[in-house]
């Protein structure tokens, strides 16, 4: 699952504990408008492991076009919006009509959904980006119809990425325009809207979109990682997956997405394996979080790279990490992010976070998750790191040339060895956790959630929907 969904889990569970959110959240994960994930379009992957409070919608609105043609229409709209400055007047009019046609399909879909569940607040995750501007337009329209006449509640646009700061490319073309244009609805124009972003940098960018409207800045809410002895499910998971308890576990908490640089992590793993064997130590494993169907071509490249590097047997592709730990239909354990971090912490492991592009991550939670679990993190350079973590965070910087990989492997192995020998939490990890708790305060969302609840009449726990750009 997307990391955004695990952060949403943390926020909702915080809200439930505060008494601000009713424990029933209806969610559309956005697959019906993301044909760039063809294995998941339009109803999403067959998966489980959602929290008990989460009700996931797995239906798509009635399509006016065959699936393949609808997918082509969505992608064509996305690409034309990204290059709108190159379009002539006639082309712009056609694009506007295509966007309106999508909106006409989705507006009644969203309106019926909101009405059916009597929703107080709709949380729209990363819907400002132009993956599907017709769907975003329909969200604005449905919100206006439901809350525009003064009904308590409204829509919260919660953006983890924005246009300029999310430099994703496909086929050498930028997926998003550098800033909004006439085809991209943006928040901040109506009284029933709230706008939240996760960093000050994103807030500054957003303020240039709508005549100086600046959204609230609420950093991502991190999970708490219980440390200490493992429980039976962790040990059973290791046995089910053939993991030797004497070998450390490295985690790659990333989607199967080229900018995440999973091939860099595999190269680092291969060097760590070589050094470990030379020192007569058991080499580590690497567990990769992402779902394999997100980009099968990239998966094939990664498997071949692992084979060439000699680490094919040391890598476990988890094929998606559930929002909550559960047993699958075969009775096998599927561990969530928290349990996997517990597993790595218990055997002297680490987190690898190796983006291959510097300009896609707005935060990059790998270092933060490592700090929460009290384990080291090896990371490649990316633009947002210093702004998010500052110069007090201590990790292992990975240069991607052969000498840099070898040096990083040596330093990371030494850091992991020091943790295994320590009787308590390592001093560097204590310092990193302090930095992370300062940058990601656990109570950051409390006031906002209570404010949303208090805006209702009569005051009480709020009910929400969550629509995500998956």
The major sheet is characterized as:
7 strands, parallel
Q: Please report the number of helical segments.
A: 14
Radius of gyration computed on alpha carbons: 22 Å
Number of strands: 17
Strand content: 5-15%
Helix/strand-derived category reads alpha/beta
Tell me about this structure.
The protein is an alpha/beta fold and 470 residues long. Helices cover 40% and strands 14% of the residues. It has helices spanning 3-18, 67-82, 89-116, 133-147, 200-206, 232-240, 262-278, 296-309, 337-346, 366-373, 385-389, 402-421, 427-439, 446-454; strands at residues 21-28, 54-57, 121-125, 154-159, 169-170, 173-174, 193-197, 216-217, 249-252, 285-288, 315-317, 326-327, 333-334, 350-353, 377-380, 396-398, 462-468. The strands form four sheets. The protein has a seven-stranded parallel sheet with strand order 2-1-17-3-4-7-8, sandwiched between helices. A six-stranded parallel sheet has the order 11-10-9-14-15-16, sandwiched between helices. The protein is globular and about 70 Å long. The relative contact order is 0.15. The model has no long low-confidence stretch (mean pLDDT 93).
């Amino acid at each position: 699952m997307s990391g955004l969904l695990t952060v949403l889990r943390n926020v909702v569970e915080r809200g439930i504990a505060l008494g601000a959110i009713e424990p029933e959240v209806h969610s559309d994960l956005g697959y019906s408008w993301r044909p760039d994930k063809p294995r998941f379009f339009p109803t999403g992957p067959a998966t489980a492991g959602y929290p008990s409070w989460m009700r996931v919608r797995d239906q798509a609105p009635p399509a006016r076009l065959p699936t393949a043609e609808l997918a082509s229409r969505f992608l064509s709209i996305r690409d034309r919006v990204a290059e709108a400055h190159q379009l002539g007047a006639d082309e712009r009019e056609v694009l506007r009509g295509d966007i309106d046609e999508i909106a006409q399909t989705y507006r009644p879909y969203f309106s019926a959904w909101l009405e059916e569940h009597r929703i107080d607040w709709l949380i729209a995750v990363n819907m400002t980006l132009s993956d599907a501007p017709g769907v975003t337009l329909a969200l604005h329209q449905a919100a206006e119809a439901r809350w525009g006449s003064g009904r308590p509640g409204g829509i919260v646009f919660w953006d983890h990425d924005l246009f300029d700061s999310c430099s994703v490319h496909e086929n050498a073309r930028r997926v998003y325009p550098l800033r909004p244009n006439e085809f991209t609805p943006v928040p901040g124009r109506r009284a029933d809207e709230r706008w939240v972003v996760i960093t000050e940098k994103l807030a500054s960018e957003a303020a240039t979109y709508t005549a100086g409207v600046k959204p609230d800045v609420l950093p991502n809410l991190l999970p708490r990682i219980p440390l200490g002895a493992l429980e039976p499910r962790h040990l059973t998971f290791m046995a089910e997956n053939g993991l030797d308890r004497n070998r450390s576990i490295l985690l790659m908490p990333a989607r199967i997405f080229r900018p995440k640089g999973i091939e860099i992590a595999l190269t680092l793993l291969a060097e760590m394996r070589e050094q470990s064997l030379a020192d007569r130590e058991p080499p580590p494993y690497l567990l990769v979080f992402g779902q394999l169907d997100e980009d099968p071509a990239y998966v094939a490249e990664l498997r071949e790279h692992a084979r060439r590097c000699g680490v094919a047997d040391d890598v476990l592709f988890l094929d998606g990490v559930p929002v909550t730990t559960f047993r699958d239909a075969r009775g096998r354990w599927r561990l969530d992010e928290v349990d996997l971090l517990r597993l790595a912490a218990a055997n002297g492991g680490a987190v690898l976070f190796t983006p291959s592009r510097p300009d896609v991550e707005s935060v990059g939670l790998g270092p933060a998750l490592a700090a929460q679990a009290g384990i080291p993190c090896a990371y490649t350079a990316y633009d947002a790191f210093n702004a998010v973590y500052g110069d007090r965070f201590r990790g292992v910087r990975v240069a991607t040339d052969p000498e840099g990989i070898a040096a990083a492997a040596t330093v990371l192995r030494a850091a992991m060895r020091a943790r295994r020998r320590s009787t308590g939490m390592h001093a560097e990890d204590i310092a990193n956790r302090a930095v992370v708790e300062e940058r990601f305060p656990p109570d950051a969302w409390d006031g906002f959630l209570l404010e949303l609840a208090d805006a209702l009449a009569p005051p009480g726990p709020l009910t929400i929907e969550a629509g995500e750009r998956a």
